[in-house]
Every structure is written in C-alpha cells, then in structure tokens.
Amino acid sequence: MTTLRQLGEALGLDAAGMATLSDVALGESDPEMAGVSANDTDVPTGSVSFGFPRPPALDRRWRTEFIGRDRELRTLEKARDDRVRLVVIGGQAGIGKTRLVTRFASECASNGLPVLWGRCTEEGLGAYAPFIEITRQLVTMLDRPRLVRAVGQRGELLRILPELESHVGLLPSPTRAESGTEQRLLFESVPRPSRPSKEGDLGPRG
Hints:
The chain is mainly alpha-helical. It is built from 9 helices and 2 strands; from the N terminus they run H-H-H-E-E-H-H-H-H-H-H. Strands 1-2 form a two-stranded antiparallel sheet.
C-alpha cells in the first residue's frame, strides 16, 4: 500500500483520485478484474437520477448478485422514511457492509432522492477525504443562486474546497489561527451548506 501511495503522489492525485486508484489496484472497480461483464450491475445505472448527479460509486461492479439482506434493507428504508440522521452499520471485514449501503443508496438515487457519497479507506487519502467528496458532490447539485445562498461568506470552506470561489465568487480568506481554532471554524462552516436554508433549496441544476 505504501507503493500505491507513492504512485498517487507522483501522479499528483487528489483524495478522490487516490480512492479510484486504490479501487482499481484492488480489482474492485474494474469489471474485467471482478469477473463480470460491463453490463452486470444490481440496479439500473446512469450518471443522472431524476436530475441529480449520481455518485459513480453506486454503479460499482460486483462479483456476485445481491442476495438476502431484506431485513437490513427494510431497517434502512424505515430510518430514511423517519428522517433518522445517523445509522451505524457494524460487522466483520468482508461481511457486506459496503455492499448493503451501496445497494440502499443506489435504490434511493433511482427513486429520485439526492445521494451524497464519501468514504474512508485504510490507505491514507488526506485529511477530511470523505467530507471533501461529499461537499464537492453537493456543489454540483445546487444551481448558482442556491449555492451562493447556502455558502454565504463562509471562507473557511476554502480549506477543503479551494475551487469553491469559481462557483460562488470571492470569499473571505480562511482565518489564520492555531490549528485547533482553524479546525473548529471549519467544522462550524461545513454543515451549513449541507442544510438548505428553506425547503426546495436542494434541487437539481437547470
């Protein structure tokens, strides 16, 4: 894995690029290495679901069909319908946690719900990698007026999304302070654009 990290750094890959490189190296995203055809997926795929960008991770190829887990899927569906904010799925390595979540998220996207996808891996992909993934996806979901309204003057977000100004215009420079203060200011800024200011703010572009 150290060699993989060195290769990613030599190629100048960001966190998302490192995640893709890790998947390919492990044979988890390449249909040929996984032993399935390019058309074999659990659910219908596509880059857009009901106007919302569909995270590529949801169209991951799997070596086997999805079987069982009806009880777990119903539990997740109930949590979604009840607007539960956090669900923790635990289990041994390889038992199917990622497969279950991917299936559930894919069905949500296919039914027109916006899905944001971030992940952590054993390979070091940089600080806040899953939050960077999620926030970048959110930026693509909001048209410019809604994004400007959601971001406001929260320049702290530039710490993880330096390209944000190209979408919303100039922002205040992030505060320079001791690391703990900078981290707190970032944490306080990130959740706000993920909570639209009023119903309907989170909608597809166009």
